[in-house]
Amino acid sequence: xxxxxGYVGQRPVQEILLAGLEKLEYRGYxxxxxxxxxxxxxxxxxAVGNLSKLRAAVLRSDGDAAQPQxxxxxxxxxxxxxxxxxxxxxxxxxxxxxxxxxxxxTSDRVHVVVNGIVENYLALKTRLRDMGADFxxxxxxxxxxxxxxxxxxxxxxxxxxxxxxxxxxxxxxFVAMSADExxxxxxxxxxxxxxxxxGDGEQFLASAVPAxxxxxxxxxxxxxxxxxxxxxxxxxxxxxxxSPIEREITTxxxxxxxxxxxxxxxxxxKEIHEQADAVAETIADRTLRDDGVDLAEAGLxxxxxxxxxxxxxxxxxxSFHAGLIGRYAIEEWARLPVEMDIAxxxxxxxxxxxxxxxxxxxxxxGETADxxxxxxxxxxxxxxxLAVTNVVGSQATRDADGVLYTRAGxxxxxxxxxxxxxxxxxxxxxxxxxxxxxxxxxxxxxAELVAEIxxxxxxxxxxxxxxxxxxxxxxxRHADSDFYLYLGRHVGRAVALEGALKLKEISYIATDAxxxxxxxxxxxxxxxxxxxxxxxxxxxxxxxxMISNMQEVRARGAHxxxxxTEGDDRIAAQAEExxxxxxxxxxxxxxxxxxxxxLFAYYVARKRGLNVxxxxxxxxxxxxx
Length: 625
Ligand code: AGP
Fold this sequence. Notes:
The protein is of the alpha/beta class. It is about 35% helix and about 20% strand. The protein is built from 17 helices and 25 strands. The chain has an eight-stranded antiparallel beta sheet, with helices on one face. A hairpin with a 6-residue loop joins strand 7 (about 170-180) and strand 8. Helix 3 (about 120-130) crosses helix 4, helix 8 (about 275-285) runs parallel beside helix 13 and helix 14 (about 445-480) runs parallel beside helix 17. 2-deoxy-2-amino glucitol-6-phosphate binds next to helix 9.
């Protein structure tokens, strides 16, 4: 996720912004920039790469004689005491200096830093362009600078932000600064976090507390759908239509490492809690139409899908499980045959693949050696290759004919959680788009699925909050078990595989995961009274079959922990424990069903006192062939 920092006060702002951005490095970024305001002018410096590049560029522009001036870097004015900074994790547009923030309007009088996604940016961009705005980047964020500037023709910065906010759709937080109001920053929050740090004669704005923790521990949390006006002598909170809001000051006692984790005890737990936001970013501007999905974005030319007779999905680990859910969705909705293999197996199979096939390589890092090698091999054989990845500019994006980004933001925890749910969401979008192009679903069914996909973020958020205590208690009860079996059928099998992988990789407990129908062909011999068996029994066409499998498990005295759909009263009679997830379309239910299993693995591992963020023997990216 991108990082925002803003400052207004009495001290030189450059170092405060740079040091603040450095404290946000853990969030991941590919480029960065700062804008500062002094003597009625805004100066801006942006750089691709790590913050040392930005620091060097700021020094050069600040007149360091030791460094040659590099055009086209603007001059950073020394006396500036107000400014904004940003670290960007690319989602719309490539990793370039032009696409880095801050973005500015045509007259260079309004600068903004933005996190998140503006869903209706294309319509706004067209309108603003027709009115004379000169766009200089490929980003959705730049529309906010032009829009605020447009509204400033009739009012103050805060009035312009209010007017802009009313027109923007999406999921974002931004801070705006105008050369005409040298003592004011205005921030707006819609879903994405933004926090005020209170000082004496100075104030801070940031997307996360570490950015200003060295200066103050007094914070004011900006709630969803609020605007803040920040000046050296105080901060005003208001609703988007300008009604004032009272907000108390909270003193945080976090150390730096807790602050980086947003107050959570580990990155994994923080990232599990970020899943609603992450999925919202994945689907945002791709589900604007009620009657379908739009994937035509940088790098994804839909001619890739023309003439495709078969799809082959290749991946590793958790990404393989996301692919398995995607396979069921593509076959169910788009009626295209889909084969799957583990990348490290397929590449050594002397594989048969042709130009009539679309190969989808799923890799959150975009750098997994086996997946990359398999994608390259498929391409050499003439197949078209689509990469589904989280990292803009990663090797997978360079080795593919098209890219579908998952937009989960940086995941620090080795165990994949938010990148997984975003991969699944991206695969749902792809499956639905293919169904639309191939005419395999009635219009009403597509509309129904789009509506359900849009509701996923809210359902994820609700699920995590409501289940946390229940799952902690279940984990307490079962943390000492030394073997678990996970069972699922159809799409529930992918959920079982992922739940079992999460448990084994962070708790080091032996787990096995099987298709329910396979149980009696061997694994049933493992069961006794001491075995917890996690059964995925959410709504799906083969639920009755799954219920039979649960009965077989119980007949051996094993302990069934079922994951079921809210409102399904058949499951409680078949299980010792039931964890309910909100009802949605049965195919989408798979994404929701994984979340309690992530939490379960997490709390079991914590109960066993393990370091979940860095499990033994595992690396975040497996790049060695
Ligand atoms: C899962 O928690 C692991 N991090 C691992 O299985 C991972 O999914 C696998 O190594 C593939 O990584 P990739 O998505 O970056 O290619």
